[in-house]
Amino acid sequence: EAGVAQSPRYKIIEKRQSVAFWCNPISGHATLYWYQQILGQGPKLLIQFQNNGVVDDSQLPKDRFSAERLKGVDSTLKIQPAKLEDSAVYLCASSFPGTSSEQFFGPGTRLTVL
Amino acid sequence: QKEVEQNSGPLSVPEGAIASLNCTYSDRGSQSFFWYRQYSGKSPELIMSIYSNGDKEDGRFTAQLNKASQYVSLLIRDSQPSDSATYLCAVGGGGSYIPTFGRGTSLIVHP
């Protein structure tokens, strides 16, 4: 069974530039999560989708971050414009519906903002 | 806001010993509890899930849940150097729909 796919694996940009990350969840997983993990901290949920609808985006900095999951499968997370403090690993995870379900993580995208 | 607390460590144990990792959570309505292992530079990997009070064993790993005390722990028996990693506690369900992770405990198993 294929796992959660993410790309790119690494990205280096300068502040005020834009960047986008892509995620393809495990087949059949209706729930998709984007997390931000800063070095030395646990993953922080940015947004949770159920199929193509947003379940929770209360911790997403909406002035610069956006995410979509148009067909209920793949998802894209965008940052525009990036700040130095956005340097982190961005993790995508998927699960069967509900936060009681086990989540499976992709390899992550390590973003460095200079 | 739901909080999950873990001692960041590092917790250092000799090879073959029992490692005990602890986690407390604030949302009394939480329903699901997970332990993830994260090697340096890698993504979290689920190792245990527990949903009801008591113990759950899987190989060398035992998860313990006490909802009255809002406490969940992970025991690793016969610790191996390959167990050296950061262990993340995660809590889901309950009044807040947001799944929440602790900051993780770094475990070092030395030969």
Structure description:
The complex is a heterodimer of chains A (114) and B (111). Chain A is an all-beta fold and 114 residues long. Chain A has strands at residues 5-7, 10-13, 19-24, 31-37, 44-50, 53-56, 65-68, 75-79, 88-95, 104-105, 109-113. In chain A, the strands form two sheets. In chain A, strands 2, 4, 5, 6, 9, 10 and 11 form a seven-stranded mixed sheet that branches. Chain B has 111 residues and is mainly beta. Chains A and B meet through strand 5 and strand 10 of A and strand 5, strand 9 and strand 10 of B.
Largest sheet geometry of chain B: 6 strands, mixed
**Mean model confidence by pLDDT of chain B:** 92
Low-confidence stretches of chain A: none
Helix content of chain B: under 10%
Gyration radius over CA of chain A: 13 Å
Structural class of chain B: mainly beta
In terms of DSSP E residues, the strand content of chain B is over 45%
Question: Can you summarize this structure?
Answer:
Chain A is mainly β and 114 residues long. Chain A contains no helices and 11 strands. Chain A is 0% helix and 48% strand.
Please outline the helices and strands.
The complex is a heterodimer of chains A (114) and B (111).
Chain A: E1 5-7, E2 10-13, E3 19-24, E4 31-37, E5 44-50, E6 53-56, E7 65-68, E8 75-79, E9 88-95, E10 104-105, E11 109-113
Parallel strand pairs in A: 2-11
Antiparallel strand pairs in A: 1-3, 3-8, 4-5, 4-9, 5-6, 7-8, 9-10, 9-11
Chain B: E1 4-5, E2 11-14, E3 19-25, E4 32-38, E5 45-50, E6 54-58, E7 61-66, E8 71-76, E9 85-92, E10 100-101, E11 105-110
Parallel strand pairs in B: 2-11
Antiparallel strand pairs in B: 1-3, 3-8, 4-5, 4-9, 6-7, 7-8, 9-10, 9-11
